[in-house]
Structure formats: structure tokens, C-alpha cells
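cache lookup: miss for this entity combination. No prior model stored, computing from scratch. Input as submitted by user K.M.:
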Amino acid sequence: MGLKGVTGAIVVGLLAVGLESLVRVTDTPFYLTQLTMAAYYSLAALGLALLTGHAGQVSLAHAGFFAAGGYVSAVLVTRDLTPYAASGPVQWLDRLHLLSQRADAFGSMMLHVAPWPALLAALTVTALLAALIGVPVLRLRGHYLAMATLGAGSIIYQLVLGTRLFGEADGLSDVPPFPVLPGLEICGARSGRVGNYYVACGLLVLTLLLFANLMRSRAGRALRAIHGNEEAAAAMGIDTARAKLGVFVLSAVMAALAGALLTHYNGGIGPSEASVLKSVRYLAIVAVGGMSRFLGVTLASVALNFLSLRGYFGSYDDAVFGLILVAVMLFAPEGVGRIPLPFVRRRP
Amino acid sequence: MSSELVLQYLLAGITSGSVYAIVAIGFNIVYSTTGIINFAQGEFVMLGAMTAISLQPFMPLPAAIALAVLITAAVGALVELVFIRRLRRPTVMRMIIVTIGLSILMREAALHIWDERVRSLPYFSGDEISSVRILGAFVSPQVFWLLGLGAASVTLLGLFFRYSLTGRSMRACSANQAAAALVGIDTRRMVTLSFAIAAAIGALAGCAVSPIAQTYYDCGAPLAIKGFTAAVLGGLGRSGSAVAAGLLLGALEAASVIVVPAAYKDAVAVLVLLIILSLRPSGLFGRHDEARLKEY
């Protein structure tokens, strides 16, 4: 493999800087907002690429995990704990410096869980949720796995849509900024646009490096063996159930991280983030990018999400992703980067 | 709780359950001949009902329904000819992704052909206030139409698969495609036919349930999950037990309203699916040794 994974990270890093300069030269800084959002969605897509492309397991629950991350952290940072300030658990959290205070939309002070612990809680909850779903579901294959994860995803959607705590159809809003470094916080404010853009792109580059390393490790080779032939992998002494569960949880946590940070960036989250159509969208992106090719998936994800967020697809937004799924599977099952071009010979 | 109320819930459950059963049979027909779970099966139900609703002002209701069923069957066949057949050396993953993509395309096409409004066919007999009283519970006559059409189509399909040459050829395909081809069966035609029949039966269910349920461009997706649940509950590929499983699922769902808030009603069927898949993927009525030969 050599430098392959690192090249992906370098390419994405250079492209990020290049796009920012381009936007600066053409004086169109508003594009950065959608690029930042697209970068967060790409984190979730990369997680799915690890699961589907490398381990060969389909998941149609990823929008659910994305929403789980977003909603759990949003609830924790917007729920006013002042009425319970005297209670034991809240006092205990306060002593650990896990709470913070701010003025709400009406100017009165509210006490809530601080963003960092809320993020950690969101990731933990999503990991547990993914493990809970993964243990029974990952024993299944093919159609059964697809339908079971689709079902799990739709349960999360129903829960989000039907629960008062999660704001039902309105979702949650007034999510405060997320402090990254002193003077740099994840939020939608215009002044922090460039900084936020680089935070998101930096995360993307870090993830690419992490995944490239993972695939070169023993665990990564085990995953590829499972993709090739699960029985053979098991016969070689790989604990296939554990490896599959591990990658399922990791990819769910990636989606949750993306969901939580995007929620801070947007200042809120709505139930549509959990819908099955969103899960299908992640799958379409992974398919276009060439399933296991992290660089391809990143580029496809940023491009498609950017176009979609800018509204270029109009009322055909979902149809575009459906069409992509069908077209890619029919004409370029190895991903768009692998279409056999005339006169170009590729290494096998 | 009074016995009338229990009966009322049970009847409501049977009503929705019979739709799940018919969708499950659609899954089974395609699965048997191709090994594909067609994620777009729910969209056939929607398409059938929407087409009938559009045709209905121009012709008598039975003609509109018959024509809608034919049109949907043609769409089903077309889907197979244009998309499924083009998949060379398909892996399971590719087949799943293609049918998911197709389901979204059909849904979005319906959104643009019609719109996002909720519609319904007129009642086959009587109207929305006419009802039949059974042991203290009230049922719309449409429920009998639905159950009757469901029973009729299950019976006819059973006869078709058992006695007609075409039906037997399709069963041969499902048992062993290579062997079927060797004895001179055009297996590709059988696959197209199975998509057409699955679409037709879905469309018929869509028309029958349209007066009492709501028909809109997005109504197919939940039906697909629930129909699949019924199919798995009965043991995939077994149409007789799919009917029992569909009715059981409908009754469970109706009864769940007693314990679970109605907002989560749709999640109940999915929970049943997850439980059955993890405990007994061969289905309630499937034989264990037979199931061992399949890949889950």
C-alpha cells in the first residue's frame, strides 16, 4: 500500500486549501458554509465506506446514528437543569466542571451540560446503540442485513419524530457553539466561517489518515478477509463476529461525531436527518466513490452534498441520489473512478 | 377492556394485516424466482392505487382498477427488463442497492407525476359511513372487499403455481435455475414474469386498501418494511404462511396501541422484524433444516 492512504489525506488537504483560496479570490465566501456542512456529512460517509466498502456489510441505519449523535448532544446542551440544580446528580456534574451556564433566547440564565462532555456522551450513547443493534443484526447477511438495518434506522426515526424530548417534528434549536480552541468555536457565525471550514476539513484529513492506518493494521486486514470470504476468514482464526461489531460501532461513532458537530454548526437538528432517505444518500455516495476508496468517497461526498445543499438539484434532490444508485450499480459497480475508459489501460 | 373493543382492534389489525400479507406474497414471488428481495415492492402498491385514482374519473371503478393493475404489472416487467436484467454477475450487495435506488426513483416519479397530496379511491360499495356490525364491533364493507380480494388472489396464485405450465416453470426456476434452463425453460422470461405478477398483486392490494387508508407518493416505504416482516415471519418463500404471518403482524400492531403510544406504532412491526431475524430467521413456520440451506 505504501503511501496510498497518506496520498488521499494530502490530496484532500491541498484541495481544501485550494478551494478556500479560490473562494477568497472570487469573493464568494458564502460557499464555505455549504462546503463545511458537506465536509461533516463526508465524515459519516467515510464511516460507512469503512463498513460497506472494506468489511462488506451494508448499513441503512447510518442516518439514524448521525441523528443519534446530533440529538443526544443537542438535548444535553439545550436542556435547562436549573430546576434540578439542588439535586444530587446535577451537583455532582457541577463539581466535575461538566456543566456550563449561558443566557437563553429570552435572556434568562440557564444551566446545561457543557458541549465537550455532551459530545462524549453522544458518542458513547451512539456506540452503545450501535452495539445493541449490531450484536443481533450482524449475524445476518445480504438482504436480511440490509432490511434489518433499514428497520433499525426507521425505529430511530420514529423515536426522534414521536418524542417530546427530541422536539418531535420541529427538532431542536438554540444549540450553543462548540468550543474547539480558545477563540475558535464551531458555530454558524459569519465571522468564524473560515476557521470552521478548516476545522471540518482538518477532521476529514485526520479521519483519512486514521482509516488508512487502520486498514494497514491487523484489524484492517481482518476486515478485508471478511469481505473476501467470511468462512475462510473465520477458518484463519479471525474472530469475525468481533471484527464486524467493532467496525460497525466505529462507523456509527463516526456518523455520530459528524451529526453532533454539524448540529453545533447549524445551531439545531431536525428529524429529517434520521430519515431512511438520508441513509440511502450515504450509501449512494459510498457507491459513487467506489465503495472502499476513501479518497473517492470523500470527493464524491463533498461534491454531491455541496450541490445538494446549494439546492442545484431542486425538487429532484432525492431522485438524483436514487438515480445515482441505480446508474452506478448498472454501469460502474467499482465506482465512477473505475469506469473503463477507451484507450486507457488500468492496472488490474 | 370490553370484548367489543378487543374485537374492534382485532378487526383493524386484520385489515392492515391483509395488506401486509399481500405485499409479503409479492416479496416471495420475486424472491423465489430470483433470490432478490425487491425493495421497491411497496412502491408497486402505491403506484397501483395512484394510477387507479387517476383513471377512475374516466371509466367505471372496476375497469380503472383492472387497468391500473395491468399498467403496474407492465411497470414491474419493465423494471426487470431495463434494470435487473442488465446486472451482469450481480452480487447481493448490487442487487440490494439497485432495488433501493429503483424504489426511490419510483417514489420521486410519483411525486412529480402526481403531487404530495393524500388521495383515495371511492369505496367499492357503500361509502365512508356505511358499516357492518359484527358481534358489537363496526367494520367498513371495504374490509370485506380487501379480505375477499386478498383471499382470491392467494388462491388463484396457488392454483397457478401448482397446475399451470407457466407457474410450474417458475417454481422450477426457483428450485434450480440451471436445471430449469436445461429442460428448456426460458428462465429470463420467468424472472420478468415474476416481477410482473408481484407488481400486479401489489397494485391490487393498493387499490383495495386505498378507500380506507391514505394513498400518497410516500406510502409504499412503510408497507415494504411491514410486508417484508410478514414474509420473514412466515419464512421467506412460503406464501401460505406469509398470509398467516401478515394477519398476525397486523393484529400485533393493532394491539400494541394499548401499551405503546400511537406515535411509535410503526416501530412495532420493525421491532418484530429485528427480533425474528435475530432469534429465528427461518420464520415462525419455516423448517429449521430447510433454513440451514439458505444464506441469511
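stored under new cache key. DSSP finds 13 helices and six strands in chain A.
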